[in-house]
Amino acid sequence: MSEIDVLLVEDDEADALIIREAFEYHKIRNRLHVVTDGEEALRFLRKVPPYADVPRPGLILLDVNLPRRGGLEVLAELKADPDLLMLPVVMLTSSRAEEDILRSYSLHANAYVSKPVDFEHFIDAIRQIDNFFLTLVRLPN
Amino acid sequence: MTAIAWVLAVVAACLLVLSCVLAVRLRRTGKRITTEVSTAVTTAVTTAVTAARSDQSQLEAMAADLRRSNAELEQFAYLASHDLQEPLRKVASFCQLLQRRYAGKLDARADQYIEYAVDGAKRMQALINDLLAFSRVGQTPVQPALVSSDRALAQARANLAEEIEKSGATIEAGHLPLVMAELPLLTAVFQNLLSNALKFSGSAPPRIVVTAWRDGLTCVFSFTDYGIGIEPQDAERVFVLFQRLNERSSYPGTGVGLAMCRRIIEYFGGRIWLDTTAAASGPAASGPGETRFCFTLPGESEDE
Question: Which CATH class name applies to B145-298?
């Protein structure tokens, strides 16, 4: 199986590290790219410099609470862009607010996952997301 | 204070009537005196009534203050427990990462440090989770409706299925009535009581008996186990938040369960207590460690 590029949009360095560790722990073959705010995420996806040479990710993990442009704003913009709307987006966030869940799905998020409080559950969640989106489902090329 | 002021008002009113009677009698002899007396009495009545009114409004203001500070405190507990979870998740996660990656690679002392750090962080997570659940009771008020306490107990048993099976517990429950409550909260009450009965069972497989009966419009529940028991002098203490009666190493827990039960039952307008007569009801009827919790909840009205 070829390696897949995953774009993680996460402003919290510690959480980004935990996610990276979880991928490594499960020996998931992917290249994890991390950007720390919504603006950067859109530049990455549109290959705006300094991101001219980055690959197109097969999966986006998007936090809801981001500085500058929030996760929901980024999601809305992605899903309104004919070039990007096919990319699967998993909202991976510490927010459990019903409102965020509803808004995410009405903006066509592919899944909404609350970061589990327990570490074991957290890395298991990453494994399951990975298993579903990177192994089980067929995504558009 | 209010009561005293009202009594004063009534006394003053009586004096006024008396003064009128006097006034009639004194009309011929001394009109001036009558006027003075009645003026004085009127003033006394007015003063007493004003005092009573101001006491009443003071009391209302105090009650409003108390309600507000209570609401603020609840909001604070909710926010504190919610916002504390985030940094704590980091501490716990990285301690666990340290353990996963470096256990056995440093020295024995380091392994022990990490173990204590992981244990402490996990315990604090459990505390905060329980505190959050505790402070959430009544945060989103739902119109109370009739719910089946049979269903709540069944749900609680299902949630604890693993522990029940492992301990070999028997649970005897008759038909339980419909009560005015919310299903998730009533389930939490049953689950806390069940979980305690399983935990404090002693060496024999736990036996738990649940019964309920109606007392007018109220339903009374009793929840009995035959485990290690609770001393009568601890009957109130067990309901206090974070109070624990046993050492943590033998009986893990946060000390929130029964406080949570009391909060939920009182939220629905009921009462919960430890029935201290249970253990003393005679050696033939009960073992030394019989523990019986009772609680009441509003039931179905007769015409329903």
Answer: alpha beta
